[in-house]
């Protein structure tokens, strides 16, 4: 018997080698994932000269805060972050209101008219009018240009997310609802006091899906928001990185004795500002996200 | 907007009044005792017992009517020479624009742009299917082989991060690393291969660049679904195989892969249903005048032609084509995935 156990534990040299290769492959993928972040962060503290002269580094030789000084003096980025925060918080609230109120009746077996509404949901899942009719509706008919309603209303319900919530409502035990009915509760009370609290995990996941997509998307803002005061952070970053040839000509500030603004490190530092909010919340949302992917893949 | 809110409140008030009447009526009746009355339809009883449910669906229905079904009427533009200033009022232009039948489609299918856009879209999606689709599967298989739980959890935490980063940030990072003047990676590459073309503007480098970005951003997060499938593989199978003297590759080939092949097939079929969709937020960012010949896909083309240049009919026609074919693809792939034992998309 001991001999057999030994055979189980012992690994051939070939197997050990494979094991090492696997660790190296996985480890280097993780490293490739991390390196751009490290470089962006390190580079934002470097001087432009060093950025041009040294091919790659994780620590700058001379640490310079000029890029951050410029960004703080300029202040645009904070307006962008604030705008994105407003869009995300209000937008997610609207999403959750519309999605849960539609999902709940659809999850109840005794709800008449379910078939009809399901047909509507299926149409919106399968067929869209496309970009142009939607654009004309928002911009010309509802006249929502340069208001955040243009970012909140058109996507108020993501049908996939709505179906995730619906499936979760469906999976909750019926007894709870029945006993609440016996005690004289109406559907509104059952919904707000029983169903919503019980669905907290699914609601957390879905609201994070909504929130991250609000925070990260730029196409809607590019189409509908042209006023710089209402610029969200993604649009601002796109403008600074992709559309601006030279930051000094863009700002119109006379840098005079200060010399030219540190173009490269300002761009890197702006990217850092756009990345940091996501990295700050990431540890808290990771669990709900992976959980949400699983909830979404299990169908009722 | 103001009118819309007004109408919504008016409707809510209407429902509220109707609710009030019914709640009162119900209060007069002891709960739990249903009085069967001849002539009262079950529909009406159902409505009053669960009146709140009918209130709940109102916002969702209004949303779908305005933002899903109303735009469908706008598809009429595909059969018009639509001019936004041809009529007054919000809908005037749709009524007064000249009706031209299938002329727009004829022009579209006879011109070069449509075929270029279709070819680009398919080229991007087929390359993604070949090179990007297997990436999360491979990473999941590798992660599955790792026994050190701390190492496994740490790498998982790291490789999920880019999924939460916006395309603008991914694009910015790419731009700052690869641009020809001072991009850091570009400088490194140029030291080894002095003749390396400019990645950001060479048409031939466009698709590899997109795939690289997608792999960096989504490979890690894509492993979740496969890792879940792998977790459900019975560990006894591995133990039995070990006792039988199977090595690592034999176990991977005969136990692990069969364990996730169902998931792979379903993911593949669902991907096939999305063959006309591309990540246009990603592509639009990386597009420039030098790579336009390979980078124009349906959504970027529609955006440029219609929203920027104002040719609404062309964009609507192209969007309609994409929607119809896209719907057929989704329906087809869905019934296919049901045949493979999945519950499908709907």
Structure in words:
The complex is a heterodimer of chains A (300) and B (346). In chain A, 74% of the residues lie in helices and 0% in strands. By secondary structure, chain A is mainly α. Chain A has 2 domains: 2-68, no CATH class; 75-243, MetI-like fold, CATH 1.10.3720. In chain A, α10 runs antiparallel to α11 (187-198). Chain A is globular and about 75 Å long. With 346 residues, chain B is mainly alpha-helical. Chain B has 2 domains: 42-101, no CATH class; 106-339, MetI-like fold (Orthogonal Bundle). Helix content of chain B is 72%, strand content 1%. Chain B has helices at 2-27, 42-49, 51-73, 89-96, 103-110, 112-132, 134-145, 149-160, 167-178, 184-192, 206-231, 235-243, 248-272, 280-286, 292-295, 298-308, 312-339, and strands at residues 80-81, 98-99. Chain B has a two-stranded antiparallel sheet with strand order 1-2. In chain B, α9 packs parallel to α14. Chain B is globular, with a radius of gyration of 28 Å. The model of chain B is unreliable at 1-39 (pLDDT under 50). At the A-B interface, α2, α5, α6, α7 and α11 of A face α2, α3, α7, α8 and α9 of B.
Secondary-structure blueprint:
The complex is a heterodimer of chains A (300) and B (346).
Chain A: H1 2-9, H2 13-44, H3 48-53, H4 66-74, H5 76-107, H6 114-126, H7 131-141, H8 149-152, H9 159-171, H10 174-182, H11 187-198, H12 200-216, H13 219-224, H14 233-243, H15 247-251, H16 263-297
Helix pairs in contact in A: 2-16, 4-16, 5-9, 5-12, 5-14, 9-12, 10-11, 12-16, 14-16
Chain B: H1 2-27, H2 42-49, H3 51-73, E1 80-81, H4 89-96, E2 98-99, H5 103-110, H6 112-132, H7 134-145, H8 149-160, H9 167-178, H10 184-192, H11 206-231, H12 235-243, H13 248-272, H14 280-286, H15 292-295, H16 298-308, H17 312-339
Antiparallel strand pairs in B: 1-2
Helix pairs in contact in B: 1-3, 6-11, 7-11, 8-11, 9-14, 11-13, 13-17, 16-17
């Amino acid at each position: 018997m001991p001999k057999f156990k030994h055979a189980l534990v012992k690994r051939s040299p070939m197997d050990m080698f494979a094991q090492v290769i696997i660790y190296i492959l996985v480890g280097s993928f993780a490293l490739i994932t991390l390196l751009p972040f490290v470089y962006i962060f390190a580079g934002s503290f470097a001087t432009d000269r060093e950025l041009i002269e040294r091919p790659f580094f994780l620590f700058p030789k001379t640490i310079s805060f000029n890029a951050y000084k410029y960004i703080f003096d300029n202040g645009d980025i904070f307006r962008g972050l604030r705008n994105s925060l407003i869009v995300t918080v209000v937008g997610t609230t609207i999403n959750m209101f519309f999605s849960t109120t539609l999902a709940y009746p659809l999850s109840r077996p005794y709800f008449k008219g379910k078939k009809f509404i399901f047909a509507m949901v299926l149409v919106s899942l399968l067929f869209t009018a496309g970009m142009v009719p939607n654009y004309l509706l928002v911009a010309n008919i509802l006249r929502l240009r340069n208001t955040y309603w243009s970012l909140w209303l058109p996507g108020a319900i993501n049908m996939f997310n709505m179906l995730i919530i619906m499936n979760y409502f469906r999976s909750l035990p019926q007894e709870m609802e029945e006993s609440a009915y016996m005690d004289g509760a109406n559907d509104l009370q059952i919904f707000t006091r029983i169903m919503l609290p019980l669905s907290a995990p699914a609601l957390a996941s879905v609201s994070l899906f909504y929130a991250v997509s609000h925070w990260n998307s730029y196409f809607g803002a590019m189409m509908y928001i042209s006023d710089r005061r209402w610029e969200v952070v993604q649009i601002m970053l796109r403008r600074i990185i992709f559309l601006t040839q030279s930051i000094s000509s863009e700002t119109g500030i006379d840098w005079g004795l200060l010399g030219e603004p540190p173009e490269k490190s300002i761009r890197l530092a702006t990217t850092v500002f756009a990345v940091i909010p996501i990295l700050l919340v990431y540890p808290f949302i990771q669990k709900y996200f992976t959980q949400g992917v699983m909830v979404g893949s299990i169908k009722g | 907007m103001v009118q819309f809110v007004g109408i919504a409140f008016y409707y809510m008030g209407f429902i509220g009044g109707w609710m009030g009447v019914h709640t009162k009526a119900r209060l007069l009746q002891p709960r739990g005792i249903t009085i069967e009355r001849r002539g009262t339809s079950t529909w009406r009883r159902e409505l009053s017992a669960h009146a709140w449910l009918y209130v709940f669906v109102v916002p969702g229905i209004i949303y779908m009517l305005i933002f899903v079904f109303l735009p469908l009427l706008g598809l009429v533009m595909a059969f018009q020479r639509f001019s936004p200033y041809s009529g007054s009022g919000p809908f005037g232009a749709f009524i007064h624009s000249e009706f031209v039948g299938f002329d727009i489609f004829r022009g579209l299918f006879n011109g070069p742009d449509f075929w270029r856009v279709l070819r680009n879209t398919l080229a991007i999606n087929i390359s993604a299917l070949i090179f990007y689709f297997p990436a999360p599967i491979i990473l999941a298989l590798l992660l599955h082989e790792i026994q050190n739980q701390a190492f496994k959890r740490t790498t998982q935490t790291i490789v999920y991060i880019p999924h939460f980063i916006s395309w603008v940030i991914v694009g910015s990072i790419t731009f700052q690393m690869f641009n020809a003047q001072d991009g850091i990676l570009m400088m490194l590459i140029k030291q080894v291969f002095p003749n390396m073309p400019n990645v950001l503007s060479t048409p031939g480098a466009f698709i590899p660049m997109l795939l690289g970005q997608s792999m960096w951003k989504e490979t890690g997060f894509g492993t979740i679904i496969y890792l879940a499938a792998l977790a459900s593989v019975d560990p006894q199978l591995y133990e039995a195989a070990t006792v039988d003297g199977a090595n690592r590759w034999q176990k991977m080939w005969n136990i692990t892969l069969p364990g996730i092949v169902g998931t792979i097939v379903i993911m593949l079929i669902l991907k096939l249903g999305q063959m006309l969709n591309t990540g246009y937020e990603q592509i639009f960012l990386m597009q420039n005048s030098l790579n336009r010949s390979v980078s124009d896909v349906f959504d970027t083309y529609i955006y440029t032609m219609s929203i920027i240049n104002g040719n609404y009919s062309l964009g609507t026609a192209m969007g309609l084509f994409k929607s119809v074919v896209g719907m057929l693809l989704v329906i087809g792939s869905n019934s296919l995935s049901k045949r493979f034992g999945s519950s499908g998309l709907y």
